[in-house]
Design a protein that fits this description.
This protein is of the alpha+beta class and 142 residues long. Helix content is 23%, strand content 27%. The chain has an eight-stranded mixed beta sheet with strand order 3-2-1-8-4-5-6-7. It is globular and about 45 Å long.
């Protein structure tokens, strides 16, 4: 009898856990390397991972004070495009959650370069050149 009660207790706990998980689905986007983005940035490490289509990936890390961003760029997928002057720009698609008041566009500039008002992401020149030539989307993460 005790063995049966213990089995029933374990089974009911398993069903309750599964039901709780099912009632709170996770709608966070899932990104696929080599399918949805061409470069990735780990902001906290200042580490860029460039993902060439037919070659090995390349890591670029730079810890200089004039690289990175003055404020964290929200995590998620960002499209690489150009502003009205032909300079590189990141554009947040609707799937990228932005904090209140954060703009949908972030300027991409080489480390040490000046920028207009608004958020900017400063990138090592070698990585920025590659992004301009090859990247359509960048995944930004902590």
């Amino acid at each position: 009898m005790l063995k049966h009660s213990l089995s029933a207790l374990i089974a009911s706990a398993m069903f309750a856990t599964a039901a709780a998980a099912a009632s709170h689905p996770n709608y966070d986007p899932i990104y696929i390397t080599d399918g949805q983005y061409d470069a990735a940035l780990k902001q906290g490490e200042h580490r860029w991972r460039l993902l060439p289509l037919f070659d090995d990936e390349v890591d670029v890390t730079d810890h200089s004070k004039d690289c990175g961003s003055h404020e964290p760029i929200p995590n998620g997928l960002w499209y690489v495009t150009q502003d009205g002057n032909g300079r590189p720009l990141l554009l947040a698609p609707s799937v990228t959650a932005l904090p209140a008041g954060f703009p949908e566009q972030v300027a991409l500039r080489a480390c040490g370069e000046s920028t207009d008002a608004g958020p900017a992401l400063f990138v090592p020149a070698v990585a920025l050149d590659w992004i301009n030539a090859h990247a359509g989307a960048i995944l930004i993460d902590d």
